Amino acid sequence: MTNNGKCALCGKTFTEQNEGEKSCMLEEVIEGTPYKFDSTDCITMFKRFRNVYGNDFRELLGQEQQFISDPFWNRATPSEQEIREIGKESELGKPDITQLIRDPAKIQKIAFEIGMEARDEILVIYSTAKAFYRQMKLETIQSLKEVVEVRGVKTRILTPKEPLIEKTVQLLKQQNRNIEIRYSEQGLQTQVTILVVDRKSSLVVELKDDAKESSYEAMGLGAYSNRKATVLSYVSIFESLWKQSELYEKVCEVCEQLKFRDKMQTEFINTAAHELRTPIQPIIGLAEILRSRKEVITAPIYDEYLSVIIRNAMRLKELTGNILDIARIESQSINLNTEVVEIDSLILNALQDIKSQIGINQEVRLLYDSRKEVAIFVEADKDRITQVISNLLSNAINFTKRGTIAITKEKKEEAGSVNISVEDTGTGIGPEIFPRLFTKFATKSDKGIGLGLYISKRIVEAHGGRIWAENNTGRKGTTFTFSLPLNN
After folding, report:
1. Which residues contact 377 (CB under 8 A, 6 or more apart)?
2. Weakest mean pLDDT among 62-76, 181-195, 206-220
3. Which of 122, 243, 317, 361 is 20 to 30 A from 251 (CA-CA)?
4. Domains in the chain with CATH codes
């Protein structure tokens, strides 16, 4: 058998038949031009495509004179009356429709009509960011917003990410919670805009020229369908892209978190190395002096050196303790040895421990009214709560060069808790640090490694309480407050 040409529509190659074999090739003259076809279905489809595309249909066949047919188009019909019935319920007896539309104005009209008839759900995929902008100019987005607000239609939109789109998205989300919008990454973007309404009708519009400012110039062929199989196919495409965009957003979020953690870890290592080195140096240096010059060192100098060594050793102990606490918190192995304790005793212990941290050049007064008119008891780990109070006092001292630091307690009967507050007249909390105040390594101080507030938060929460901070209104400084459940 030898080659005898191809089907004008599906491209199947004909071969010359042997004697006695029946030929499967059909010949048809259409508008004066002879064509060869593989079947009567190909002849019918060819005529329908020619009817829709006109003289341009020959260009779609390509150099190989081949066009692969698709069952999607096998109900193509140019009925104006059927287009007006878009969105009607199938049980009303309307026939299935698949409509190929070449007129951009007609495509836009159909999109508006089926969108306005939505009752339950609208799904939209925009091919490009410019496609989104073009629809904004036509006020399609505004019309969609009205449908969502008036009827409560749940709407999901997939669109590429652009600064202007982000602003529009934020505004839409603020105004109506029934609108969900996600951004499609570049690899998932399509060359068609897809609209699906109530999972009963779909409109697909190809992108012809994205450089055009007008939607009518940018769009190519449109296809409307209310056939169940076709519409659900586009729903499946939408759901797949929606899920992929969700996963992509989560991956991006995790990536940013890892970058932030890496940055924080690097800063922590650098800061921790510096903070650990600071007390170690005087401990080693003064200990060497005491050992090498013990015969000539007088008692006052001896006591002074020992005081410096002890103070720096205590600082080193605190730093290593914080690092160990972080390890315990991260591994969820921090243990609480709870007992019934009185709040005043915890506060007084913390005040006694913290006084030595006030520098010679600081003019700071510690204020606390220790009168026990009403004793307040909590069930807590006294060492851990003392640690929290000490951390808050230490934080206040670091940021208060001159003024007062006042600690107060207040019983909240209705809430069944007690609030303990530390108020200072220092520099306050800067806006750049406030959002991550109680996270690890968040600090603007030249002392410490930014672990105290994070540890305090975790200790308080382990006791069933909470901790917060606010800049003082109308005056300088900050107030840190934490609550603990009362022992009833």
Report:
1. 340, 341, 342, 343, 486, 487
2. 62-76
3. 122
4. 3-69 (no CATH), 80-226 (3.30.870.10), 256-330 (1.10.287.130), 339-485 (3.30.565.10)
The per-residue pLDDT for 94 is 55
How many degrees, rounded to 5, is the angle at CA 238 between CA 233 and CA 242?
150
pLDDT for 252 equals 82
CA-wise closest residue to 339 among 406, 300, 386: 386
Please provide residue 240's backbone torsions phi and psi, each rounded to the nearest 5 degrees: -65, -45
Alpha carbon separation from 408 to 253, 363, 368, 390, 422 (Å, rounded): 41, 20, 6, 14, 7
pTM of the model as a whole:
0.46
How many Cβ atoms are within 10 Å of 118's Cβ, its own excluded?
A: 22
DSSP track, 67-103: ----GGGTTB---HHHHHTTT--GGGTPPP-EEEE--
Phi, psi of 28, rounded to the nearest 5 degrees: -145, 135
The number of helices, as runs of H, and strands, as runs of E, in the chain is 13, 18
Residue whose entry in the numeric block shows the structure tokens 């001896």: 302
